[in-house]
Amino acid sequence: QAQQRISINIASSHPTANIWVWAMKNVFQPEVDRLLRERGNKYAINWREAYGGTLYKFTDTRAAVSDGIADIGMVGTVWEGAAMPLQNVTYFAPFATEDHELLVEVFDKLTAELPELQKSWDSQNMVYLSSLITDSYDIYANFPVSKLEDLQNRRINAPGTSANWLQGTGATPVDGALTTYYTNIQTGVTQGALSFASGIQPTRVYEVAPNLTRVGIGAMYFGGVAANKAFFAKLPKDVQDVIREAGRTTSKRHGQYVSERATAALAEMKAAGLKVAELPEAEKARWVKSLPNIVGPWIQANGEPARKVLKAYFAELRSRGVKPLRSWDEGL
Amino acid sequence: MELGLGLALIGALIVLVILGVHIATALFGVAFVGVWLIREDPSLALRLLSVSAYNSIADYLFATIPLFVLMGLLVSISNVGRDTFEVAEALLRRIRGGLGVATVAANAVFAAVTGVSIASAAVFTKVAVPEMTRHGYRRAFAAGTVAGSSILGMLIPPSLLMIIYGVLAEQSIGKMFIAGVIPGILIAVCFVLMIVALATFAPSYVYDAERRRLRGHHVAPAMPVPEILAKLLPILCLVALILGGLYTGFFTPTEAGGMGAFGALIIALARRSLGGGRMWRVLKETGTVSVGILILLIAAAFYSRMLSMAGVPTAIGDLVQSTGLGAYGFLMVYVAILLFLGMILDSSSILLIMTPIAVPIAQALGFDLIHFGIITVIAVEVGLLTPPFGLSVFTVKATLGDPNTSVEAIFAGAMPYILVMVAALVLIAAFPVLSLALI
Amino acid sequence: MASQTENTEIDFSPPAPEGAMQRITGVMASIGTILIFATMVMIVADVLGRNFLNSPITGVAEIAGRLVVAIVFLQIASAIASDRMTRADFLIRIIGDRAPAFAAFLEKLFALCGAVVFALIAYASWPDLVSSWTTNDFFGVQGIFTIPTWPFRAIVVVGAVAAAIAYLLSIAGVGRPPAQTPAQTLD
Ligand code: NA
Ligand code: NA
To answer: Can you tell me the ipTM of this complex?
Structure first.
């Protein structure tokens, strides 16, 4: 029986060294190949890779997969607050969990079971394959933080939704991206950044911001790897199954990889002189309490589905023994 | 097979550009047909076209381009560029090819306030070309000198290209800026030596014998020191504002364009240069010049995405990796590819295509990525001067608005500057200390 | 020794006859022009606000990014109408010296290509305009700042249509011979 060759255009806005792309290239692709070989070797994939933003930028991750510019791609729902707002629930409910591997598990489950989340992907012509997350957000700064007052009148890089997390601390959120923090802090434009270890280490921000204060703002759900729906529908059933299964494996390995990277990153940064301190529990509690109701506007804008997603998210966390520092779902 | 198609599409672009199709039209058209052929689906080409049109330049970085142009034009209309040039001219009046040297020197100073080379090209086309022509220089040489020395605008910080490289390679933009200082000065000095050498040993390349005889040997009068200082004060203020602002953390490299334009506006107001509707005309001209560049960036982004679909970057990456030449062999292949791409693409597209491919390899081979970035930026900047797609040359041509000085004449005039840059590139590659000493 | 003042003056496109289309492109270009100035003011205000008042302007980066696209599409028709699109014209000038009629034909053909390309951009962008309108698409962050995207989408479509029309008008009104340059020496 002749082997059928199938071309798949796989792409991302970030390079393969990036935590969100690494597993696409190093787990997903080989896993699909392996499963196809094992299951009768009837099909073989001709991968056409466009990693690293050569095909589309981070602003277009949804459009690229949704329009079929890529057959399979990394979709950062974090940049799609308008088209896929429900996926951003974690950014509006900080201080929930620092365990990103658990977050992967939760969102694999929620996306498979909650019609609201499922619909976001489906109505965007996408088939969800695996989850993407960040490790927990902390403060990297050129000054130590031992109490909330230390943040008063400081300028901190906190782009997008994360600007919300500084409300009530007296710090001024300044826009930016991982790639601008180093220069921003070095030149004094800002004095620190809200970020996560696996992201901060490659950009060497710790050289200019040698104080890491573990705040535990939490791990965040970032997006997913998805396939274009029309492309996926045309695939033979066997291949569809293999791709879905490889997607689930990719989710898990992505979570583990982020753990490896975050651990290694912390060790490396400490060796390079990073001073690590925990924010005292009492101060952390004050921070959490001082936050205004940041999930309110999000619920208001997105209505019942948002309410449902938030409740389901917190229910999943609690069923796994997590005690979120603030019950954002209270009174809903 | 797709790669063959990719090469055919590059060929098609070159042919259309040479025929005289508007370059944006050629890029859009070839890319559209290319995507259609590669993916056998015209609707996909439409989708990618829409995404590219709407988002490819929707970035703070690109928003600074009109502002750098605005700063350039404000500096031009308030005669700050001319004053800088005149001071250089007076100081260099006894040197052979002195006006050419003055153009380079004025560009080097101006480079400290502008982040895009085309702004320098626009300003000094207005200032230097007429003056050089009046003094018996060949128009093509004068225009070529302006185009050639305009590359200093992106080599001496602040620099848009360094910002883009820093973002793509995850390197500190501040370090990139500092690393560019010595190479920028080195190249400026090499330009000066080259001009003096040409004026001495090949005067017919530099001067128009006929006009020079008619005019007689003219030497500019000496300029008294107070006048020099008065003329230099505004540009020095602008340099101080931008460099000071950058290094004290008052604003970011990306914001330098906005702050610089604002500083130039204040200077222009102080010099009362903006009366009689001139402010409005400066702004309109800023729009016209900027849109000419930005539409090319959009078209080039669409085109480079088509090349990505055709697998060209992957093929180039494989080619680079398969050479197995070791560090300097790799560097040679890499620079050759950059120079080739520089003929057909704009600088930021080249960086977008090549940086993600090359940086991991360079890192594995043990290059310092700041050093590698400076090499990359210089090689990419050569592309501003090489035909058929040379943005600095096009800018000089567009700003000159003189039908008697053709695009190819300016390309020819810029040729010596290309050779000098390549020579300097070899030096800077061979001696990393030239870029890394100040970091 | 100052060079003639006209040399440091800025060039302006020759005043075109004022048709309805010219007036529309003129207004569009003017809006684009104002937006450039607005971008500068916004950046300066952000820098000053951040440094002196601890109150940066939220969303400057995103807004500036969107504005630059708007600026391009507001001004593109005007740039086409005033013949400021970048190109290499050496071959067409050589052709123009030998066979002016053929060169004129090529010019019209190229302008037609330009019209087709910008018509395609408008056509490709239309569905996105519609969906940004119907889905209330925005950029920014809920609770911090949100700005609808449809005006920016609309500018792309309108600008591309105007650009296509500007190319078509340049075909109709290509009065100037393409080979206006006599075949003289370059200097
Ligand atoms: Na510069
Ligand atoms: Na070139």
So the answer is: 0.85
